[in-house]
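Thread: "does anyone have the structure for this chain?"

Original post by V.I.:
We have the sequence but no experimental structure in hand. Need at least a predicted one for the grant figures.
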Amino acid sequence: MNATMSAGMSALIFVVIVLAVFKGMKKPVKGSGARLLLPIVFVSSSLLQLLNPELHVQGWPLLLAAAAGAVVALPLIAATNFEARSGAVYFRQSNVIFALLGAIFALRIVLMFTMTSMNPDALGLIFNVATVSYIAVWRIASFSKFRKVQSGRGFAVEQ
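Reply from O.Q.:
Generated one for you, tokens below.
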């Protein structure tokens, strides 16, 4: 897959994610909040690339990609908050989330077009590891924040 096609696929996925986040902010989080963790399952399927015997990536770049993803997750964690209203827990409305997701997408596209000396499959794997890393860290932290608000221990509880 060439860089232009990959950028197009990334743009489509980005639009779907932004629409889902926007829609999710308007509705209460249902049940135990386990649905907050589902994106981890969805994006981790991209790591099936590791089963490709022709793909050769050393462990160090993958470790750096995972660390970079964890760092990228920090502003998302800070911007994601919940509040209790009418006996339910809602995402607190924040346009910062959309700005951060846009910045992450733009960074990914810029890096994709500037890192041309690397094998495209290896580069794709490295980007996927970073993506899984930031989504996993962000969603696990969001789930933890949700559970605190749901149990009444959070600071965002309104009466």
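V.I.: this helps a lot. Helices lie at 3-24, 38-44, 59-79, 95-114, 120-150.
O.Q.: and DSSP finds five helices and three strands in the chain.
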